[in-house]
């Protein structure tokens, strides 16, 4: 850098030398004088120029004493030649430019330019130096520096070729030499060339346009590319050096100038020469402190960094510092076989398993996929180690800790301790008989009070009477309408059947029992004149003689679903859910009268029941069971079943316990002494419950469902009011096939034996015995 | 009538504060709060009712008050103020003042926190797992200016982890070691507490960018103080000086654990030959523990030992032979005599590798194996400087290599892969070395932390090991005979012979088991004959019992029209279903969830069994190195 700078600067100086060599020292002065003026830029250049030299030049300088160094010059030349072609066109212009510049300047500094040699020199710019030997030129370039020795720079101390000093050159005009070398040898003038030679050379030499003649040293100088660029800049009125920033921030070096004298001429005060009293006091103080040992220069012995913190003999502490129970952080899970670097083969995932992971949700995917390495050498470092530990740190200080009691219970201990079914026998366990004969799903069945006969009604429109012991079909009534329900008169002296089909309830003698009983039954089913509906058409029902069978028919205005006998066998209640206000009707068989006990029903009535012993009447709507006191004619209780739709209802012979089956698969047990809420709600059927039944004497109840099964329970009711009923499932009876999503449609217990009858949609009736 | 309760004055509302409320109360910023919480071990709690909203973090008021009275709180303010002073001095170009201030910076220590958090030593040991893992991690991390991991913390971590390992080695407290993909798990038992820590594989660690290293460094800061005190206590309980002076010579050659151990235990692997480790160097490294050398120190330690109820043999008792010299210069006999309370387990651990000389090739993980072998009573050397004995030493019984091919093989020793050491240690049994040949395929490396019975699945190799163990216990009542275990002059080929013998033993044991079984059967038959059970009945194989049990059902079947309705399985299902009917709903749900868990576990085990069967048939195609794993 420095060298380049030097070279450029030096080059700028050259033309002025070349042209104004006789008064070169004046020139230097002049330039310096200009420095503070408008020519600051130029002066920069010229001052720099005093430093001047290129690297080649310096090389030449080293060998200067022996003369010149052709090699180095040659190099310099060859460089320049390459660029000739480009610059050639500007030849004339440039020469003109250089001249113009100096002319201009001289005009400005007219007074100082004492002699007219500048003009003469300029003349020579054009003519001199052509055809000079290059070596001489090179030497000349080196040589011109030192003669501007006014430079404040020490770097440019370069010996000149000519040592004549600042004397008019015309003194040597007539001599054969132009001056002397350092060693006192004469420098012989070059041979003068005539104008023709000069002209020819100008024409031949491509560098001629930028060749100047240095009269002082008597040599030609070829301007380099940079020098020419600099000259061009000068001509444009710019600062010669492209790198110089003319707008440097202003630094006010001479700030003090308008602020008066910075230095005081006052004599030094005395206090500066006498020791300070205050300081002496301080010293005394410190000395005293040191003597008394307040200030110590000994380093304090450091307390041991670690010491025995726990003196206890491995006892645990029961108190924490903050009074809260310490919740230790849970320890991380210990690794299993799968985390081994070399796990057993079965722990590694197969390709299918790996693919299945891709289909999983992110959170379900296994956190760690086992890998296997053949040797310990091949195990790489685990990339997530730091991250895992960081997450552990976060867990430690960010996660809320709760003490959770981990119940490590055996699942089997959750099963309630109930008596073994074996100990609760008898109950129906096995299929004993199948009653086959119906051609449609058996919808309903009932046993007669003696337990000898079984009646069943089917969708095929028949009612069949079976002998329980043998399974023989004793009688068939064909009603041509699907039978929905049938029920025996609970009074053994009245062997009557109430059969529900369509809108009618058919009352007919079953033909069982002895003769007197049969006669009584036949007498009862004869239409009387007092019968409801016989006279007026507007009655809720019409009692009439049946056409389909020998008996009475109670024709309702809506479909009848269910009928329920009073335990004495005189009254029975029918349910027709579709009828709004006449949904529940109570019929008296003896008088063949019908009455509507409720003016209004709360919801769709599903079932009604008489209390087995007391004057209570149960009305089951879809979700509730209302218990009416018939004697007082008021609502006694309202039981909330907690089910969606009640399908069936049965009452314990004691009358205090009620079970309800529902279409949403639930069975609820009400202990009416306990609460109006269910005592137990059991959900074990897979499909809706179609029927429930209590045994009359055994502590048994059963439910049957569309899932094709019937469940038998031990349902013990204690006379001790403090003891809750005991419910134990004892048997699941399967056997019926599910036909069109209908399984077991009804079930009934044998009145005296622990036997269960079930009616299935698969057209069969089954008897399960113990 | 009592006063009316005001809202927010009692219960959850008064006992728990949100984090922001806590910050306001403590007048600190969140990073400072975080730091305090980490150091004090305060964590959020889960109130039963989240009075201030569900998405908030709740702290117990007592915890926050606890923080409020923490001297560190004031200290941190002081430090902050001091930093400002230094900064100001620097800004004023007053370097002298800044330097002076800096030299007098307020200091803090965390020992009171250790005491506060762990009032008893047992508590401290219980929580040591995380601390040790963290220390071992940072001991392998580079001091990284980018992540602001200071070098001194790393060095301390390294020192403390070495001290810990040295203690474990000295007391033979190591119980289990497991090489997982994630790192090497160690489990030690100290004062009845099981302490597990993980050491990353000795390779350069990845420092992820999405990790807040400040949090980790705060933890590390506490853990270092904590472990230092624990180490002190442990060393103190042994009557050793803390910190142990490390053997500089060994430390230089990066055999740091060896340095720590040798300094601590005063253990010399080859006192006679000296190996490359000169006795003099060893002594200097051992420092003051060598009571035989410095009388006053010795007296103190003797006194201490007496206090501990340990009988002391004469200090001048020569550390004879290859027996490891106790820290008090006593021999092995004395130690046996003294440590009566030492449990069976420790004895087994100490004696596992006793008399065995190991040599580690340069490609095996030195630190882990050095730790392991020494903790189990073996002598170990390695390839490199500071090794106690050279590779050519004739006493070497096992050379641990992990190269597929070996250059020169010594016939007098066994060449095994490192896994042999881990498996042997976990099973407390010197496994047959033929299964772990250098360069050969290895049996699976099983986790010692798995309770196979609870898991319900026993891998094949575990079964094999179990058989070996039973054989060893049955035939010898202890560890299998070792190849030249106690003998000094080990002849060539003795090892192989011993191995063969052991193999025979195993076969014999299996045969014995079979014979025992037959005998049992014979006795059973005899008993039946005496009882008068007909032979046909015995052929049925317990059919009589079944008949007794299912009597009722059988009768029922007989009474039924068709026996097809109820079959045994169905009845059983029904019984179970009936049992469940009477369960309350909540219990039923819990029960079902449990059954689901059991089923999932069973499914896992079944899948394993299936895969194992397939593998045995050679039909299992597993992916050894799944992508992205």
TrEMBL record, chain A:
<keyword id="KW-0698">rRNA processing</keyword>
<dbReference type="Pfam" id="PF08145">
    <property type="entry name" value="BOP1NT"/>
</dbReference>
<feature type="region of interest" description="Disordered">
    <location>
        <begin position="1"/>
        <end position="167"/>
    </location>
</feature>
<dbReference type="GO" id="GO:0000466">
    <property type="term" value="P:maturation of 5.8S rRNA from tricistronic rRNA transcript (SSU-rRNA, 5.8S rRNA, LSU-rRNA)"/>
</dbReference>
<dbReference type="Pfam" id="PF00400">
    <property type="entry name" value="WD40"/>
</dbReference>
<dbReference type="GO" id="GO:0000463">
    <property type="term" value="P:maturation of LSU-rRNA from tricistronic rRNA transcript (SSU-rRNA, 5.8S rRNA, LSU-rRNA)"/>
</dbReference>
<keyword id="KW-0690">Ribosome biogenesis</keyword>
<feature type="compositionally biased region" description="Acidic residues">
    <location>
        <begin position="23"/>
        <end position="41"/>
    </location>
</feature>
<dbReference type="InterPro" id="IPR012953">
    <property type="entry name" value="BOP1_N_dom"/>
</dbReference>
<keyword id="KW-0677">Repeat</keyword>
<dbReference type="InterPro" id="IPR036322">
    <property type="entry name" value="WD40_repeat_dom_sf"/>
</dbReference>
<dbReference type="GO" id="GO:0030687">
    <property type="term" value="C:preribosome, large subunit precursor"/>
</dbReference>
<dbReference type="InterPro" id="IPR015943">
    <property type="entry name" value="WD40/YVTN_repeat-like_dom_sf"/>
</dbReference>
<feature type="compositionally biased region" description="Acidic residues">
    <location>
        <begin position="55"/>
        <end position="92"/>
    </location>
</feature>
<dbReference type="InterPro" id="IPR001680">
    <property type="entry name" value="WD40_rpt"/>
</dbReference>
<dbReference type="GO" id="GO:0005654">
    <property type="term" value="C:nucleoplasm"/>
</dbReference>
<comment type="function">
    <text>Required for maturation of ribosomal RNAs and formation of the large ribosomal subunit.</text>
</comment>
<comment type="similarity">
    <text>Belongs to the WD repeat BOP1/ERB1 family.</text>
</comment>
<dbReference type="InterPro" id="IPR019775">
    <property type="entry name" value="WD40_repeat_CS"/>
</dbReference>
<keyword id="KW-0539">Nucleus</keyword>
<feature type="compositionally biased region" description="Basic and acidic residues">
    <location>
        <begin position="130"/>
        <end position="161"/>
    </location>
</feature>
<protein>
    <recommendedName>
        <fullName>Ribosome biogenesis protein BOP1 homolog</fullName>
    </recommendedName>
</protein>
TrEMBL record, chain B:
<feature type="compositionally biased region" description="Acidic residues">
    <location>
        <begin position="546"/>
        <end position="558"/>
    </location>
</feature>
<comment type="function">
    <text>Required for maturation of ribosomal RNAs and formation of the large ribosomal subunit.</text>
</comment>
<keyword id="KW-0175">Coiled coil</keyword>
<feature type="region of interest" description="Disordered">
    <location>
        <begin position="313"/>
        <end position="345"/>
    </location>
</feature>
<feature type="compositionally biased region" description="Basic and acidic residues">
    <location>
        <begin position="567"/>
        <end position="579"/>
    </location>
</feature>
<protein>
    <recommendedName>
        <fullName>Pescadillo homolog</fullName>
    </recommendedName>
</protein>
<dbReference type="GO" id="GO:0003723">
    <property type="term" value="F:RNA binding"/>
</dbReference>
<feature type="compositionally biased region" description="Acidic residues">
    <location>
        <begin position="332"/>
        <end position="345"/>
    </location>
</feature>
<dbReference type="InterPro" id="IPR010613">
    <property type="entry name" value="PES"/>
</dbReference>
<feature type="region of interest" description="Disordered">
    <location>
        <begin position="536"/>
        <end position="580"/>
    </location>
</feature>
<dbReference type="GO" id="GO:0000466">
    <property type="term" value="P:maturation of 5.8S rRNA from tricistronic rRNA transcript (SSU-rRNA, 5.8S rRNA, LSU-rRNA)"/>
</dbReference>
<dbReference type="InterPro" id="IPR036420">
    <property type="entry name" value="BRCT_dom_sf"/>
</dbReference>
<dbReference type="GO" id="GO:0005654">
    <property type="term" value="C:nucleoplasm"/>
</dbReference>
<dbReference type="GO" id="GO:0000463">
    <property type="term" value="P:maturation of LSU-rRNA from tricistronic rRNA transcript (SSU-rRNA, 5.8S rRNA, LSU-rRNA)"/>
</dbReference>
<dbReference type="GO" id="GO:0043021">
    <property type="term" value="F:ribonucleoprotein complex binding"/>
</dbReference>
<dbReference type="GO" id="GO:0030687">
    <property type="term" value="C:preribosome, large subunit precursor"/>
</dbReference>
<feature type="region of interest" description="Disordered">
    <location>
        <begin position="264"/>
        <end position="297"/>
    </location>
</feature>
<keyword id="KW-0698">rRNA processing</keyword>
<dbReference type="GO" id="GO:0070545">
    <property type="term" value="C:PeBoW complex"/>
</dbReference>
<comment type="similarity">
    <text>Belongs to the pescadillo family.</text>
</comment>
<dbReference type="Pfam" id="PF06732">
    <property type="entry name" value="Pescadillo_N"/>
</dbReference>
<keyword id="KW-0690">Ribosome biogenesis</keyword>
């Amino acid at each position: 850098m420095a060298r380049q700078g030097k070279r450029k600067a030096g080059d700028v100086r050259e033309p002025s030398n070349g042209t104004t060599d006789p008064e070169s020292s004046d020139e230097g002065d002049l330039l310096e004088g200009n420095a503070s003026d408008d020519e600051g830029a130029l002066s920069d250049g010229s001052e720099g120029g005093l430093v001047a030299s290129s690297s080649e030049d310096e090389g030449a300088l080293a060998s200067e004493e022996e003369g010149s160094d052709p090699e180095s010059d040659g190099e310099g030349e060859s460089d320049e030649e390459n660029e000739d072609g480009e610059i050639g066109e500007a030849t004339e212009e440039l020469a003109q430019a250089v001249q113009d510049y100096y002319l201009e300047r001289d005009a400005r500094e007219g007074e100082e330019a004492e002699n007219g040699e500048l003009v003469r020199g300029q003349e020579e710019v054009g003519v001199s130096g052509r055809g000079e030997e290059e070596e001489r030129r090179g030497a000349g370039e080196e040589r011109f520096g030192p003669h501007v020795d006014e430079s404040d720079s020490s770097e440019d101390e370069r010996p000149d070729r000519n040592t004549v000093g600042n004397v008019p050159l015309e003194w040597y005009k007539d001599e054969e030499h132009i001056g002397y070398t350092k060693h006192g040898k004469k420098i012989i003038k070059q041979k003068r060339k005539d104008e023709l030679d000069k002209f020819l050379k100008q024409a031949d030499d491509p560098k001629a346009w930028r060749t100047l003649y240095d009269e002082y040293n008597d040599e030609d100088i070829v301007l380099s590319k940079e020098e020419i660029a600099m000259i061009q800049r000068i001509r444009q009125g710019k600062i010669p050096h492209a790198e110089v920033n003319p707008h440097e921030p202003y630094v006010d070096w001479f700030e003090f100038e308008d602020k008066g004298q910075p230095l005081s001429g006052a004599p030094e005060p005395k206090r500066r020469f006498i020791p300070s009293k205050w300081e002496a006091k301080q010293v005394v103080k410190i000395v005293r402190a040191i003597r008394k040992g307040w200030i110590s220069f000994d380093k304090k012995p450091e307390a041991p960094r670690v010491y025995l913190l726990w003196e206890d003999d491995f006892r645990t502490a029961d108190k924490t510092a903050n009074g809260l129970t310490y919740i230790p952080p849970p320890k991380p899970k210990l690794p299993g076989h799968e985390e081994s670097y070399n796990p057993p083969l079965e722990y590694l995932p197969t390709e299918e398993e790996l693919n299945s992971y891709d289909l999983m949700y992110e959170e379900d995917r296994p956190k760690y996929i086992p890998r296997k390495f053949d040797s310990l050498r091949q195990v790489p470092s685990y990339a997530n180690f730091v991250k895992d530990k960081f997450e552990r740190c976060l867990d430690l200080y960010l996660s809320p800790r709760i003490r959770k009691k981990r119940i490590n219970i055996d699942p089997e201990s959750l099963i309630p301790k109930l008596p073994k079914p074996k100990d609760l026998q008898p109950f129906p366990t096995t299929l004993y008989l199948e009653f086959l004969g119906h051609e449609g799903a058996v919808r309903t069945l009932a046993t007669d009070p003696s337990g000898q006969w079984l009646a069943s009604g089917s969708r095929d429109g028949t009612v069949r009477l079976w002998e329980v012991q043998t399974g023989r079909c004793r009688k068939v009534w064909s009603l041509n309408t699907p039978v929905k329900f049938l029920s025996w008169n609970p009074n053994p002296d009245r062997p009557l059947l109430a059969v529900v089909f369509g809108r009618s309830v058919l009352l007919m003698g079953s033909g069982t029992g002895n003769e007197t009983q049969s006669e009584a039954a036949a007498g009862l089913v004869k239409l009387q004149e007092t019968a409801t509906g016989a006279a007026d058409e507007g009655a809720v029902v019409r009692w009439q003689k049946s056409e389909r069978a020998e008996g009475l028919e109670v024709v309702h205005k809506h479909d009848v679903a269910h009928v329920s006998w009073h335990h004495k066998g005189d009254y029975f209640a029918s349910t027709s859910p579709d009828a709004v206000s006449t949904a529940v009707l109570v019929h008296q068989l003896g008088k063949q009268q019908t009455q509507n006990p409720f003016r209004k029903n709360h919801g769709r009535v599903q079932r009604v029941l008489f209390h087995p012993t007391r004057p209570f009447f149960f009305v089951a709507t879809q979700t509730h069971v209302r218990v009416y006191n018939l004697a007082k004619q008021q609502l006694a209780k309202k039981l909330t079943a907690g089910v969606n739709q009640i399908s069936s209802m049965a009452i314990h012979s004691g009358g205090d316990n009620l079970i309800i089956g529902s279409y949403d698969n639930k069975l609820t047990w009400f202990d009416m002494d306990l609460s109006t809420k269910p005592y137990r709600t059991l959900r074990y059927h897979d499909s809706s419950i179609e029927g429930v039944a209590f045994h009359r004497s055994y502590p048994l109840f059963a439910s049957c469902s569309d899932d094709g099964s019937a469940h038998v329970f031990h349902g013990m009711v204690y006379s001790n009011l403090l003891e809750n009923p005991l419910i134990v499932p004892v048997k699941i009876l399967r056997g019926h096939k599910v036909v069109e999503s209908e399984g077991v449609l009804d079930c009934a217990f044998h009145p005296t034996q622990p036997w269960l009858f079930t009616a299935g949609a698969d057209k069969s009736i089954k008897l399960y015995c113990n | 009538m009592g006063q009316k309760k005001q809202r927010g004055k009692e219960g959850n509302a008064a006992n728990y504060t949100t984090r922001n409320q806590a910050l306001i109360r403590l007048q600190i910023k969140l990073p400072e709060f975080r730091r305090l919480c980490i150091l004090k071990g305060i964590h959020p709690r889960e109130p039963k009712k989240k009075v201030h909203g569900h998405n908030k973090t709740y702290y117990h008021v007592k915890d926050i008050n606890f923080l409020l009275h923490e001297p560190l709180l004031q200290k941190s303010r002081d430090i902050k103020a001091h930093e400002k002073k230094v900064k100001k001095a620097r800004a004023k170009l007053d370097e002298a003042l800044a330097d002076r201030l800096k030299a007098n910076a307020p200091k803090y220590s965390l020992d009171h926190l250790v005491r506060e958090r762990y009032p008893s030593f047992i508590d401290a040991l219980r929580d040591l797992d995380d601390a040790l893992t963290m220390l071992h991690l940072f001991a392998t991390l580079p001091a990284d200016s980018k992540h602001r991991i200071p070098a001194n913390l790393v060095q301390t971590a390294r020192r403390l982890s070495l001290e810990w390992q040295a203690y474990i080695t000295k007391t033979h407290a190591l119980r289990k070691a497991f090489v997982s993909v994630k790192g090497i798990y160690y489990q030690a038992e100290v004062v009845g507490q099981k302490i597990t820590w993980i050491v990353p594989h000795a390779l350069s660690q990845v420092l992820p960018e999405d990790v807040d290293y400040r949090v980790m460094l705060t933890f590390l800061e506490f853990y270092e103080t904590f472990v230092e005190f624990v180490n002190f206590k442990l060393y103190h309980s042994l009557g050793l000086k803390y910190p142990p002076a490390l053997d500089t010579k060994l430390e230089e050659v990066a055999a740091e654990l060896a340095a720590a151990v040798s300094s601590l235990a005063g253990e010399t692997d080859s006192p006679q030959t000296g190996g490359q480790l000169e006795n003099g160097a060893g002594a200097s490294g051992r420092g003051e523990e060598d009571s035989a050398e410095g009388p006053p120190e010795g007296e103190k330690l003797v006194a201490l030992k007496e206090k501990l109820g340990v009988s002391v043999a004469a200090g001048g008792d020569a550390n004879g032979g290859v027996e490891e010299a106790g820290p008090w210069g006593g021999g092995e006999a004395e130690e046996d005599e003294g440590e009566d309370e030492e449990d069976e387990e420790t004895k087994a651990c100490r004696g596992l590798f006793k008399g065995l000389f190991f040599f580690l090739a340069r490609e095996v993980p030195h630190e882990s194996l050095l730790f392991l072998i020494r903790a189990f009573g073996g002598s170990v050397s390695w390839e490199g400087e500071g090794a106690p004995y050279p590779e050519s030493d004739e006493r070497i019984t096992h050379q641990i290599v992990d190269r597929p091919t070996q250059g020169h093989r010594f016939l007098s020793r066994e060449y095994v892969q490192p896994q042999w050491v881990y498996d042997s240690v976990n099973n407390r049994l010197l496994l047959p070395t033929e299964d772990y040949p250098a360069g050969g395929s290895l049996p699976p490396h099983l986790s010692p932390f798995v309770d196979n019975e609870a898991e319900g699945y026993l891998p094949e190799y575990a079964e094999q090991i179990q058989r070996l163990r039973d054989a060893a216990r049955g035939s010898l009542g202890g560890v299998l005979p070792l190849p030249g275990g106690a003998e000094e002059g080990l002849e060539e080929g003795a090892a192989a012979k011993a191995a063969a013998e052991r193999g025979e033993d195993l076969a014999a044991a299996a045969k014995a088991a079979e014979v025992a079984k037959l005998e049992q059967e014979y006795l059973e038959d005899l008993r039946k004959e005496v009882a008068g059970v007909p032979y046909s009945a015995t052929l049925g194989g317990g059919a009589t019992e079944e008949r007794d049990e299912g009597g009722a059902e059988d009768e029922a079947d007989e009474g039924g029209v068709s026996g097809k309705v109820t079959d045994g399985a169905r009845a059983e299902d029904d019984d179970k279903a009936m049992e469940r009917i009477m369960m309350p709903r909540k219990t039923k749900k819990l029960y079902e969830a449990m059954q689901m868990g059991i089923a999932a576990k069973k499914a896992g085990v079944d899948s394993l069994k299936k895969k194992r069967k397939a593998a045995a048939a050679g039909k299992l195609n597993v992916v050894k190195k799944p992508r992205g794993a």
